[in-house]
Amino acid sequence: MGLMQALKGLDAFPRAEEHLLQKTKSGAFVSIFGLVIMATLFFHELTYYLSTYTVHQMEVDLKRGETLPIHINVTFPSLPCDVLSVDAIDMSGKHEVDLDTNIWKLRLNNDGQIIGTEYLSDLVEKEHAAHGHDDHKTHHEDSDHKVELHSFDKEAENLIKKVKQALANGEGCRVYGVLDVQRVAGNFHISVHGLNIFVAQMIFEGSSHVNVSHIIHDLSFGPKYPGIHNPLDGTMRILRGASGTFKYYIKIVPTEYKYISKEVLPTNQFSVTEYFSPINEFDRKWPAVYFLYDLSPITVTIREERRSFLHFITRLCAILGGTFALTGMLDRWMYRFIEAVTKPNARSFSR
């Protein structure tokens, strides 16, 4: 019996007799109010526990021999697809003029609607073949060379007529696809550089008339991960007066995104600085849109994590216990206030 009495003395939740308990309307309102608060806080805390957060880490980039995917989606509302070409150059000396990557061009009317599509084959290579540029040709090939020149003249004449008609109709072009380049500093640009200089001169009557207005719908260096922001997405540059050259200086930061499931997504994020150089009528250079990129030696690892279950239980106990204690205090205050208000009235009525 002594042991049982000692155990009863440790009870932190003593029970009162049922006939000693008094239930009030104010207590019911406070109880309902407290239950609503506890339920709301419980679901908020559960959502907070189930959600993930990210942790950023930085380390030296040790990747070697990998390619860099460049996703491009750019619209040129004032240039037909027949004159646009994509050129890629990197610091290793590689100069791609006959791109084998998946690059497509969509012909657009003056309302921006698609009226045709074609695979992008670089015009530079076509014109080199048309010119028959070969330093090792012999004197006996002169007649063949004249035939090729005549063929080129016909093709150039047809191209000039076609492009002038497209310009008169207000045609534009949308260039999209993926460039796979070496993982070194370099640049790619979209321009009319693929045209023969004389053909370009006959079409535009001067470099200052080449309108390189553009809208960058998407430019990224790898797949997108949750929360990424590519600073050039949605960029619109429309020229109203003289033309010029746009240059976007891009600093690429290699990035790895690790999901909560341990899956790793290798990609890149970047920052950009923009520069515009106007062109006058006497300049020999032709307008273009350049994207000059360089890679950071530091890689960023973004890791998804979830809060521990013990952390969730601790916060839950604190929230529910605190709410219960607060509503208990509120109930006692309301009971005493109501008692203080009603008792004087009861005494005056009895008198």
Automatic annotation (TrEMBL):
Q: Which family does it belong to?
A: Belongs to the ERGIC family.
List the transmembrane segments.
28-50, 312-330
Report membrane topology.
Answer: Multi-pass membrane protein
Q: Name one GO cellular component term.
A: COPII-coated ER to Golgi transport vesicle
Q: Which residues form the Endoplasmic reticulum vesicle transporter C-terminal domain?
A: 156-331
Name the predominant localization.
membrane
| Organism lineage | Eukaryota, Viridiplantae, Streptophyta, Embryophyta, Tracheophyta
> Which compartment or compartments is the protein found in?
Membrane
**Domain Endoplasmic reticulum vesicle transporter N-terminal, residue spans:** 7-96
- Pfam families linked to this entry: COPIIcoated_ERV, ERGIC_N
The UniProt keyword set, sorted, is:
Membrane, Transmembrane, Transmembrane helix
Q: What is this protein called?
A: Endoplasmic reticulum-Golgi intermediate compartment 3
